[in-house]
Amino acid sequence: MQTTLRQAVLQAQQQLVHALQIEPSTARIEAISLINHVMQQPSRSWFLAHENDALQASKHAEFNALLSRRLGGEPIAYILGEREFYGLTLKVTPDTLIPRPDTETLVEAVLAKIPKHPAHSAPEPYKVLDLGTGTGAIALAIANEHPEISVTAVDASNAALNIAIENAATLNINNVSFVLSHWFANLGGQQFDLIMSNPPYIEKNDAHLTQGDLRFEPIAALVSGIDGLDDIRSIIKAAPEHLNAHGWLMLEHGYNQASQVAHLLKQAGFCEVIHAHDIAGITRVSIGMRP
Length: 291
Fold this sequence. Notes:
Elements: H1 5-20, H2 24-39, H3 44-50, H4 57-71, H5 76-80, E1 82-85, E2 88-91, H6 104-113, E3 127-131, H7 137-145, E4 150-155, H8 158-171, E5 176-180, E6 192-197, H9 230-238, E7 243-252, H10 258-267, E8 271-277, E9 283-289
Helix pairs in contact: 1-2, 1-4, 2-4, 6-7
């Protein structure tokens, strides 16, 4: 007797809970995502309508192969090859960080600072720079919400930048330009109205690097020196010469780094230093304005 889709998902759910110590509800979502991927069906509602269908032996083998990867700890986003972020479905690979809901706090903070003027009311488009774009998640989310502005996205990884370019093309977002650059190195004298970044900010010896998804993600996009602030220091130091007067610098950082980042911003001459918090009330973003 063949296994049904429902039985396969239930068995997988139990294995995921046991192996990864995740919540049953999360394990069920992941198991359904894997079965939908195998069946080439993007909608979870499809599974609910077909859960009593028999799972063909070849498809069951394919499902078990993906499940084994997940049971080994590989992130579900890398297995599926995609992750949703701010309403956009993005391609992800092991060359990129996996976009996380926490980073939507930065997107919301940026959107709050972009003027609400129509495109024709300013002499030139509002210019935004995304440093360390990875999949392009932040840049594409902003550009999608504001097609009248100009967004530049940079990354030091050619492999990551190619993924971002592919995501832009797939999503038909045309107001983003991409530059291979280590932070500001290849931007010449360009200036922007707003600079945003989710840079590496994890401490070199942080125990979390050996746990969960972080074990599989590119270390250069995660770690930044002994205290996790090396890249943030570099960005803050160089940002003023690339910001127009009254331009904003907005940085995502670790849950316990807000006061240090605020101090660095003030040291560099930024004013109106404020913070943005995620839905749990944790300070995720620090913001400063160039006088």
